[in-house]
Amino acid sequence: MAHSGHTHGGAPQQGPQPQPIKGVANVIAIGSGKGGVGKTTLSVNLAIALAQLGHRVGLIDADIYGPNVPMMMGQTRQPNVAPDNRIQPLESFGVKFISVGLISPGDKPLMMRGPMLHQIIRQFLQQVEWGELDFLVIDLPPGTGDVVISLVQTVPLTGAVVVSTGSGVALQDARKALEMFHQVHVDVLGLVENMSQMTLPTGEVIDVFGAGGTERTAREYGLPFLGGIDLDPQIREGGDTGKPVTLAGPNSQRAKAYFAIAQKVADASKAIAAKQEDVFEIT
Ligand SMILES: Nc1ncnc2c1ncn2[C@@H]1O[C@H](COP(=O)(O)OP(=O)(O)OP(=O)(O)O)[C@@H](O)[C@H]1O
């Protein structure tokens, strides 16, 4: 494959180039167009599944509007900050994590303007003692906006995962998220459909939000469909009690779908890394 320059491709960038975080191999952003579709639930369960598959994993909660990662990871204490301003991430279930919710715990909203937000995103990436990580998963706020811009200006992303329900309105907003990642030259590793269908205690399966819509959208965009997650009260309970369902391991029926998605994300990241190595060898 011919390659003319020394960049990773994409449009020429202005200002400082994003710098990789030392020791961190892959940075994966989890986005959605619409709020409340299960982005945080996916981020947390994906991080735990990757850790259970033997990877070293970190998780950044950058959802400034609803920083729910600490509750779902079962720890809400403030992180320790060393005298040299390095921040110690919290750790649950083998996953290191940090959250905007830990800066302003409790019920107060975190109200921030662009520059402060940019500063926090940079701190979370560069000032936290992540150590060696195979994956750093980032739970984005819903929608399109400042956090993503700060992120792509600070570090090169391996790729993004977009989560949606199958409903028309959620998919309409998911398309905007896909367009946003395209504009900032972030590869979308694939789409996930959350709350696809529900199995009643009688065994009857009902379609709640229009199962199949996300897969059709993925096909429309020529992107991989990474899988669907059932609407399942135990998944909600796992989040609310700080015991996500993936803790039950890859053989658990209700965690299976998360593990399959984690494996696909790991495989896609590996393929991207191999492609980049090729480029470096040629240039
Ligand atoms: N598959 C599922 N089955 C049952 N409940 C779910 C499922 N996925 C998410 N939920 C629940 O739906 C609610 C919203 O999920 P979550 O907080 O993950 O959404 P979100 O997209 O991150 O929201 P936002 O970004 O707007 O804060 C939570 O109570 C969560 O426990």
How would you sum up this structure, described in words?
- The chain has helices spanning 39-52, 69-73, 114-126, 146-154, 168-183, 213-220, 233-240, 256-282, and strands spanning 24-31, 57-61, 90-92, 95-99, 133-139, 159-164, 188-194, 197-199, 205-207, 225-229.
- It has 283 residues and is α/β, with parallel strands linked by helices.
- The chain is globular.
- The protein has a single domain (20-282), classed as P-loop containing nucleotide triphosphate hydrolases (Rossmann fold), CATH 3.40.50.
- The chain is built from eight helices and ten strands.
- Helix 1 (39-52) packs across helix 8 (256-282) and helix 3 (114-126) packs across helix 4 (146-154).
- Helix 5 (168-183) links the parallel strand 6 (159-164) and strand 7 (188-194).
- An eight-stranded mixed sheet has the order 3-4-2-5-1-6-7-10, with helices on both faces. A two-stranded antiparallel ribbon has the order 8-9.
- Bound molecules: adenosine-5'-triphosphate (ATP).
- Adenosine-5'-triphosphate (ATP) binds next to helix 1 and helix 7.
- ATP binds at residues 33-40.
- Pfam families: ParA (PF10609).
List the helices and strands and how they pair.
Elements: E1 24-31, H1 39-52, E2 57-61, H2 69-73, E3 90-92, E4 95-99, H3 114-126, E5 133-139, H4 146-154, E6 159-164, H5 168-183, E7 188-194, E8 197-199, E9 205-207, H6 213-220, E10 225-229, H7 233-240, H8 256-282
Parallel strand pairs: 1-5, 1-6, 2-4, 2-5, 6-7, 7-10
Antiparallel strand pairs: 3-4, 8-9
Helix pairs in contact: 1-8, 3-4
Adenosine-5'-triphosphate binds next to α1 and α7.
Region (Disordered): 1-21
Keywords: ATP-binding, Hydrolase, Iron, Iron-sulfur, Metal-binding, Nucleotide-binding
Protein name: Iron-sulfur cluster carrier protein
